[in-house]
Design brief:
Elements (H helix, E strand, L loop, with lengths): L1 E9 L6 E10 L2 E7 L8 E4 L4 E4 L1 E6 L9 H9 L2 E6 L4 H9 L10 E4 L13 H13 L5 E3 L4 H14 L3 E3 L7 H6 L2 E5 L6 H4 L5 H7 L15 H13 L8 H12 L3 H14 L2 E3 L2 H8 L4 H4 L9 H15 L3 H23 L20 H12 L4 H8 L1 H7 L16 E4 L13 E6 L2 E4 H15 L3
Parallel strand pairs: 1-4, 1-5, 6-7, 7-8, 9-10, 10-11, 11-12
Antiparallel strand pairs: 1-2, 2-3, 5-13, 13-14, 14-15
Helix pairs in contact: 1-18, 3-4, 7-9, 9-14, 11-14
The structure holds zinc ion.
Length: 468
């Protein structure tokens, strides 16, 4: 039994505060909340008078379980920043198999795996409508929680959507170039990631929509028509190189389409599109920090980010290499990227005003300059810059994440029956989103990590990375 004594409980639905509460945890579950009671013999009591308690944060777009990498560091770093759950956005048959067999062991010192897809849909497994549908059926049989679209032709995209709908399986992900965004929303896209990415959603906010869609290059990977050994591994490596910052390798035609979309952005059309998303229940996981770091890759707040000390020299060098490619983009292209980010913030403001559902996610462990853990707090700042109130930012990472996943009975609130995954804050998170970073302790699966323990996790990771 763990008791958080004399805390202020934050209601993630309406933002009301209840001061002077004891939060009682048994095992990994919250079992009671009420006025301070007598000491409980044998319980661990954390005296935290005046501390604010919120549910642990969820990074709703992350890739810590990338094959061939050790997730322990990134997961511990996420925990140290208050993250107690994540939506894994790229899976494998092996990951699904281990989970089915009950042999998937994630470090105790890290957030919970909330949901995972199988392999992304790409030309490799979804090169035709038939192949796309077959891959959806296969991943459904393997126990994937959802289907994630990466890069597909429009006909394969819509075939995958139809098959997922038939199986009652959520489908989420990217809107590859050339896709009709409204048709994708109507077809049951449960969440759209990265605001598109690229011209995906921006095109639909322009009177020149059809022209921009034609200009958008669409899938840029053509597979040879004959068998190639290790094609899957080669393609995975190629994709990783692109994914770290797609803007660094954007081609002249892509940049022209982005410029066209920026030149002709129309707020009324954006509002109409927002109404479509709101009516269809199409969520947005904008990963603004990912969108900003790819469009402003050379900004000193990223290249000189003190949080880079938590990453391996290899990772940072990969990001610097990507920046050298980015620097070769013409100045006009970089100006288009910069301007489009400002437009994307306006777009999100419109989505928020029209009631489009929004999730907080980062693309950590897949994107240049996005550091696991710290990046979620950067995402909070970007969401706030787009007009979300502090309460709305908190919801995007907690209550709304639970609603999206259909797990409100077990997470997303500080209430009996919910997981004992909590963050203790030394400042009121409803007064300013920045206070979500005033972390004075984390409870994960019923275990309390005081601020000093969280700091030593960070120090340990930094020391390991620097070879110390
Ligand atoms: Zn991603």
């Amino acid at each position: 039994v763990l008791i958080l004594r004399q805390v202020t409980v934050v209601d993630t639905r309406d933002g009301s505060l209840s001061a002077g509460q004891d939060v009682r945890v048994e095992g990994t579950t919250i079992t009671g909340i009420g006025a301070a009671g007598p000491d409980d013999a044998g319980a661990t009591v954390i005296d935290a008078p005046g501390r604010f308690v919120v549910p642990g944060y969820n990074d709703m777009h992350a890739h810590p379980l990338t094959p061939g990498t050790d997730p322990a560091g990134p997961l511990a770093l996420m925990l140290a920043h208050g993250i107690t759950g994540f939506r894994q956005m790229g899976g494998t048959a092996q990951l699904l198999g281990e989970r089915r067999a009950g042999t998937l062991r994630l470090p105790e010192r890290g957030p919970a795996l909330l949901a995972t897809p199988g392999d992304l849909l790409t030309p490799l497994n979804a090169g035709s409508p038939e192949a796309a549908a077959a891959t959806v059926r296969e991943q459904h049989a393997q126990g994937a929680d959802f289907i994630k679209v990466g890069l597909t032709r429009p006909d394969a995209f819509f075939a995958a959507q139809a098959e997922a709908a038939r199986l009652g399986m959520p489908i989420v992900g990217h809107l590859p170039g050339g896709i009709d965004v409204r048709a994708a929303s109507r077809g049951g896209m449960k969440s759209i990631e990265h605001l598109g990415p690229g011209t995906g959603i921006l095109a639909a906010c322009s009177p020149a929509e059809d022209a921009i869609r034609r200009e958008s290059a669409g899938p840029q990977i053509r597979l040879p028509p004959f068998p190639v050994p290790f094609l899957d591994r080669i393609l995975a490596a190629v994709l990783r190189g692109i994914v770290v910052n797609p803007m660094a390798r954007a081609r002249t035609g892509d940049v022209a389409a982005l410029t066209h979309a920026g030149d002709t952005f129309d707020e009324d059309r954006a509002r109409e599109l927002a109404k479509v998303f709101a009516a269809d229940g199409t969520w947005q996981c904008p990963t603004l920090i990912r969108v900003r770091t790819q469009q402003r890759a050379d900004a000193p707040e990223y290249t000189s980010d003190p949080n880079l000390r938590y990453l391996s020299a290899h990772t940072v060098e990969q990001w610097r290499r990507s920046n050298r490619t980015f620097a070769r983009q013409p100045a006009a292209a970089r100006e288009t990227f910069r301007r489009n980010y400002a437009i994307q913030l306006r777009l999100l403001r419109i989505f928020e005003a029209e009631g489009v559902r929004i999730l907080a996610g980062t693309d950590a462990c897949g994107a240049a300059w996005v550091v696991p853990g710290a990046s979620l707090h950067q995402e909070f700042a970007e969401l706030a810059a787009a007009g979300l109130s502090a309460l709305r930012v908190l919801q995007a990472a907690t209550a709304d994440a639970a609603e999206f996943l259909g797990t409100t009975a077990t997470m997303g609130a500080v209430a009996p029956g919910r997981a004992a995954d909590l963050v203790l804050l030394s400042a009121n998170p409803l007064e300013h989103h920045r206070n979500l970073g005033a972390i004075d302790g984390v409870v994960r699966a019923g275990r309390h990590y005081p601020a000093a323990a969280l700091q030593s996790i960070k120090d340990e990771i930094a020391a390991a990375r620097s070879g110390g």
